[in-house]
Amino acid sequence: MAFAGNVMALLFQLLAVFLLLLIIQFAVPQLHPILYSAIYLFVFAYVTFTVLVPFIKKLSELFHGIPQPYGRLLIVSAFLFFISEAITHHLSESGYTSLANLALLVIKIAILTLWLPELMNLIQTLTTLIAP
Amino acid sequence: MFIIDFVQSLVGGLLYSFIIVIITSLFATVMNYLFPSYAEWIKQLFFVVIVLVVLRPAFLQLLLVQSLMKSIAVLFITSYPILTAGMAISGNALNLINFQPALLLFANGAVYFADRLLLPLVTVALLFDVVTRLYPLISYSKLSDMLRTTLLATVSSVVAAYSVFITAGGVVSWGISEAASEPIKELIRQNIPFVGSLVTDSMGSLGRYSSGAGFMVGGWLLVTLWSISILPVVQTLVLAFLYRWSAALIEPFTSIEISDLLDDIGRSLFVLCAITFLMIFAFVYTVLFFIVYIKLAVN
């Protein structure tokens, strides 16, 4: 119940941020992009640490039956992808699509690096079958 | 007790991996709901997990049969010169129980054939199944299906040739009378897909053969020999059944590809079971020949 209340409060806070941004856009239009970015990053970190991380922890506890490296890897890679998507979305929204592409590429490489041992394992398993 | 433990360990491990399939697919569904843009990746990674965790018993079984086949082929190559020399010296072994010397050649040929051609083809069929599901745009499903059918046809024709050989030797009847065993055979044939008819066909020839050797070797020894050497076949058969069962069980819960993959792996394991049976047949024949030969030499 406390968790649900937390989430509802967060929703309200997001609305407040939205109103604040509207006021800024009206009052100081030149400062709007930078203030928007700053507030976005702040709110993003806040949402991630108050809602997403605890929820993901709970989820991985719930699915502890999945053999050890894989469940954690799946969750972590999805989480990383979510972060990169949020950032790239924000970047391309402000018109920096090339930067957004770079960020996406970096995160993709990070995820693949996490999975590399398992992929090696897969290749090894399949090659031992056909080894003479 | 040993058999029960053995089956329990086999079934327990497999059941565990199927529960994992169900849990993991549920988890993937939750992930898809949370991060919809990541769905494609989740699917691929999920597949990697399935191949690594759930298909491991099948791969291990295949490796086990491969190593068994290799060692038996080596055993045959090293022991057949001695056996044939012994046969040449004490010719009365042949008169006693109608051993066909050509059958030795046949057994060796079958094992060589299985080691060099049949087993690699099963492996290829299994790999084709995995690759097809891993990258569905290039599908090898018809090819692997064709490979399995061809292999089964080959193995059953080899077993049919065995029975022709043994019948030509003129060794007498099978312990249970024909009338009593017919319904049992029909039951097995209908209930075990693919391998059932093969097993019943070869059961007749084995019976004919073993009853000839029985009075020489002793019934209990024969039973022991058969039950020990049939163990890999039973193991493969149980594994194949479990894969097909679990494919049927998880079909409502996961994507169709995973269940299809498990089903195909089960089919490939049935073929593997048939090939293992071929090997066991040759092995038991050779061991019996050894026993008879040594007994005659001692006498």
TrEMBL record, chain A:
Q: Which UniProt keywords apply?
A: Membrane, Transmembrane, Transmembrane helix
What is the protein's name according to its record? SpoIIIAC/SpoIIIAD family protein
Residue ranges crossing the lipid bilayer per the database entry: 7-28, 34-53, 73-92, 98-116
Q: Which organism is it from?
A: Sporosarcina aquimarina
- Give the highest taxon in the source lineage: Bacteria
Highest lineage ranks of the organism? Answer: Bacteria, Bacillati, Bacillota, Bacilli, Bacillales
UniProtKB/TrEMBL annotation, chain B:
- Residue ranges annotated as transmembrane are 12-35, 41-65, 72-97, 117-138, 150-176, 220-243, 269-294
Q: Which InterPro entries match?
A: Spore_III_AE
Q: Which keywords has UniProt assigned to this entry?
A: Membrane, Transmembrane, Transmembrane helix
| Top-level taxon | Bacteria
Family matches, as Pfam families: Spore_III_AE
Tell me the protein's name. Answer: Stage III sporulation protein AE
Record the organism: Sporosarcina aquimarina
